[in-house]
Amino acid sequence: MGVEIREMVLADYEAVVALWRSTPGVDIRPVTDSQDGIERLLARNPGLSVVAFDDGNLAGCALASHDGRRGFLQHVVVAPALRGQGLARAMIDRCLEGLREHQLGWVHLDVVVDNEAGMAFWQKAGWQPVDTLTRLSRAL
User: Fold this and answer.
1) N or C terminus: fewer CB in 10 A for the chain?
2) 0.85 exceeded by the pTM?
């Protein structure tokens, strides 16, 4: 695979959002996934989020962050033409490597409820649902 994986920078934002919008199962949030929201994420978590390019075209992305105790993966997406070649795993491995440097206990991710393909991918990769917790959220 001749794909280059590198740290995500804010200049990647428009291409990344276009990839998210073209991918079923990605829940784009108006505040946190806005350009300002992603700028904050990248500034608070330098070097953790990645993008992948194939011949100059965005091939994938993965957001990674942490709160000092737990890590989080979000919006791990690979362009349909490049799926099944290990690109998602390579991006995830790079994100996890960066998160390990922060000595975190766990890494969490969310899968949209009806995203069966996403759930199958994550479970095949060794991630398991946590039956002892239910995520509760509140808009600010």
Assistant:
1) C
2) yes
